[in-house]
Design brief:
Layout lengths: L29 H18 L3 H7 L4 H8 L17 H12 L8 H9 L1 H6 L2 H12 L5 E4 L15 E5 L2 E12 L6 E7 L8 E7 L5 E6 L9 E12 L3 E2 L5 H37 L1 E2 L2 E2 L4 H29 L8 H26 L11 H7 L2 H5 L3
Helix pairs in contact: 1-4, 4-8, 5-8, 8-9, 8-10, 9-10, 10-11
């Protein structure tokens, strides 16, 4: 007798990951399934009804506390959480939060997970006591401050200076494209403390309310209930005890950290691509042209099949990397896998957004009606492809 199929969510073929649609998986257990249901309920009740409002106003910081209280943002076991927590819980959380459809709600949860590890792995006990508990509980937030007007992907060219003087670092310079800058209470900030190049960089933990810091929102191509910011540091005094790890060693810390970031971007990109597919599939089942449904045109079926081929490949790779993390491989050991995965995910998302737009036609170029979600996601593609 065949085993009972475990199903969850939308059962239209391909509109959910295969393990949602009854396919067996070696990765997931009942704890994962219960967590998935919690995340889905949270998104449907606490995010989707308010999404358009929050795109205009920004989503409330208190949402993170609510997520923690409702069990959809558990503490990782590395910082005192449940021993059962593994990378597949994080994959589920990132995937389900991405179902909100490109608006950036809860985006700070991913940024926190990128900005906190350098402190966990290299910070002093003092720095850990300052931020870890509050960030883990959703009470405070932390953002990475790395990129600059003239140093994006070229991290070794960062120019923001930190000059040591009388027990302080005096920090002056600019940071650009800093995600969550208006929500952050702290910045994990890359500064130049030594010679030119990658071996003169250090990390400082800088409170956002320190005198001399100015933060402004930057308008983006994509809808943004979160925020992207430009930060000015004007002779900002930072105590020496806010140094993360060793002076002039931060390039290595940051490079290791990028791999986890790329994995999370890929997980979100895979779900965004799947939403494009889902919206296009359902629209093609309803829309008629030339006397028959769109789905009955061979070229439309080809587009949908090609979209799903790419999505399932990326999903499998996301799970393979999650398993490698679970098996004990360190971030720095997965550089190749995470880089290739992130590229494949962004290319998949780009293709699916374009083909979904073609299927919707004119409905995908206006911010209302049946193609509204695809139109929004189309503008998110570059924000998936470029960062990380």
């Amino acid at each position: 007798m065949a085993a009972k199929r475990d199903t969850f969510g939308d059962q239209v073929p391909g509109c959910e990951p295969s393990w949602y649609q009854g396919q067996p998986s070696p990765y997931y257990h009942d704890g994962h399934r219960a967590f998935r249901a919690k995340c889905r309920a949270f998104v449907e009740k606490e995010i989707e009804p308010f999404q358009d409002k929050w795109i205009a106003e920004g989503y409330p910081k208190e949402l993170h506390v609510k997520a923690r209280q409702q069990g959809v943002m558990p503490r990782p076991k590395e910082i005192g959480g449940n021993d059962e927590w593994d990378p597949f819980y994080e994959l589920i959380m990132a995937d389900e939060f991405s179902r909100a459809g490109g608006a950036g709600v809860m985006g700070q949860s991913a940024i926190n997970s990128m900005a906190l590890p350098p402190i966990l792995h290299h910070g002093s006990d003092y720095l850990k006591s300052l931020v870890v508990d509050d960030v883990a509980e959703g009470r405070k937030h932390i953002s990475l401050a790395i990129s600059e007007p003239n140093a994006g992907s070229d991290v070794g060219a960062v120019a923001t200076k930190a000059i040591k003087k009388d027990g302080f670092y005096e920090v002056s310079g600019f940071k650009k494209w800093i995600t969550g800058g208006l929500m952050a209470d702290y910045f994990t900030t890359l500064v130049r403390t030594g010679k030119a190049g990658m071996f003169g960089l250090s990390l400082l933990l800088i409170p956002a309310n320190t005198p001399g810091i100015t933060i402004r929102k930057m308008e983006t191509q994509f809808d943004n209930a979160h925020n992207t910011t430009f930060i000015t540091f004007d002779k900002v005094k930072v105590p020496e005890k806010m140094l993360i790890g060793r002076e002039n060693q931060a390039f290595r810390y940051i490079m290791y950290n990028f791999n986890h970031e790329r994995w999370l971007i890929a997980v979100g990109g895979a779900r965004s691509a799947r939403i494009c597919y889902s919206e296009a599939f359902k629209y093609a089942m309803q829309r008629k042209t030339f006397g028959k449904k769109l789905i009955d045109h061979q070229i439309i079926r080809f587009k949908l099949a090609e979209m799903l081929r790419m999505i399932e490949s990326v999903q499998d790779s996301c799970e393979a990397v999650a398993y490698a993390f679970k098996a004990g491989m360190k971030d720095h050991e997965l550089g190749m896998q995470c880089a290739l995965l992130k590229v494949n995910a962004s290319k998949c998302f780009e293709y699916c957004a374009r083909e979904a737009s073609q299927i919707f036609g004119g409905s995908a170029i206006v911010k209302e009606g049946k193609g509204k979600i695809v139109e929004r996601l189309y503008r998110v593609v570059r924000a998936t492809a470029i960062p990380g």
